[in-house]
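Work Package 4 report. The design task specified in the project plan requires that, given a folded chain encoded as structure tokens, an amino acid be chosen for each position. We show below one input record used in the internal validation round.
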């Protein structure tokens, strides 16, 4: 089976993890800071806070921005459920903004229209850089200034992407950017996440929330330090830490980010040629940015038939994503089919083709042959 995505682990990655295992630190050690520094250098972020996974990163970001009961968060329906669940973890409400039918990202036009008529404005909006393509962040930032909401970029798919000539992750147009290092992402730390910001006060709160709400900073304490052992819990936080083993793997992987991106882009160029005469809709790319190409999604008619045929042929195609508002849990919250028609129309035809750095040209040719046959 040729999978839709696969991690790429080399001997340097293995050596990095073994070095961490042989060190004095398995968690809360120096490998975590090195991983954070590597991501900061690449993205231009002033502050980076590593954590257990991408979902945790989103939850920490919402808490740091003060999301709570009585507030509402808006995000895209075309995403993994974590982009919405993070609001519910905070006791807040959730709503969605339909997607642009070309980019499959949150539509800024739909966002502006919804803001104009909404009685309750969102406290936070989470645009999702779907498949690695950046959202129209400049327009979203302008709306945030006009209507007074905070912005969290869900860049789980977009490590290494560019927007308006600058790296995704510098948070020029947002308060916080959230990253994921799951095994099928651009780079992996097995599980892991990173929360990026330009604002030092947010970074400090993220660090405190990551570790039980505890501080060793005397300036943040309620009273004087009693000794070198002393710490205080100043709010209710979590054990959302990443281990040194994961961080060592992540830092090692970051050294190969450019190579990963180059190979993905080579494969994309081949897909564009190989699929040119087939009855599929290939992904549109905005001239405002360069995708990191986490996913390659085409639209096909009779998706179930094509999916089943490809799976039977050993091609591990997938579908990204089932619109969040159609999940049973969210239907119980009052959402229904027809609420976000662009996301629903996209979902009916979406098919994710295999794409990963060690995918060979021969693998890709096999995928296209099987797709051609499945399309009849």
């Amino acid at each position: 089976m040729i999978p839709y995505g696969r991690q790429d682990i080399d001997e340097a990655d293995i050596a990095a993890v073994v070095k961490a295992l042989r060190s004095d630190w398995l968690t809360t050690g120096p490998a975590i800071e090195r991983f954070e520094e590597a991501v900061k250098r690449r993205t231009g972020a002033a502050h980076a806070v590593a954590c257990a996974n991408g979902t945790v990163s989103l939850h920490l970001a919402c808490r740091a921005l003060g999301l709570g009961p009585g507030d509402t968060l808006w995000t895209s329906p075309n995403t993994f459920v974590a982009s919405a669940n993070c609001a519910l973890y905070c006791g807040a409400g959730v709503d969605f903004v339909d997607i642009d039918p070309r980019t499959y990202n949150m539509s800024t036009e739909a966002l502006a229209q919804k803001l104009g008529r909404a009685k309750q404005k969102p406290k936070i909006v989470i645009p999702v850089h779907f498949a690695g393509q950046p959202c129209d962040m400049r327009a979203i930032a302008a709306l945030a200034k006009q209507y007074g909401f905070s912005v969290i970029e869900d860049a789980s798919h977009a490590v290494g992407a560019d927007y308006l000539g600058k790296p995704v992750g510098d948070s020029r147009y947002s308060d916080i950017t959230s990253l994921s290092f799951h095994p099928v992402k651009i780079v992996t730390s097995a599980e892991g996440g990173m929360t990026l910001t330009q604002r030092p006060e947010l970074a400090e709160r993220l660090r405190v929330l990551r570790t039980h709400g505890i501080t060793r900073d005397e300036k943040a304490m309620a009273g004087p330090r009693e000794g070198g052992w002393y710490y205080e819990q100043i709010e209710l936080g979590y054990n959302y830490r990443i281990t040194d083993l994961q961080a060592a793997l992540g830092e090692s992987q970051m050294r190969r980010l450019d190579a990963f991106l180059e190979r993905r882009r080579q494969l994309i160029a081949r897909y564009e040629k190989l699929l040119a005469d087939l009855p599929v809709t290939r992904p549109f790319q905005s001239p405002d940015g360069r995708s990191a190409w986490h996913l390659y999604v085409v639209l096909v008619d009779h998706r179930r038939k094509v999916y089943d045929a490809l799976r039977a042929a050993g091609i591990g195609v997938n579908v990204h994503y089932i619109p969040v508002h159609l999940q049973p849990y969210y239907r119980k919250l009052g959402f229904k089919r027809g609420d976000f028609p662009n996301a629903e129309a996209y979902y009916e035809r979406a098919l994710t083709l295999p794409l990963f750095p060690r995918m060979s040209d021969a693998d890709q040719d096999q995928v296209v042959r099987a797709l051609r046959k499945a399309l009849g």
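The domain at 2-254 is CATH 3.40.640.10 (Aspartate Aminotransferase; domain 2). Validation will be extended to a larger panel in the next phase.
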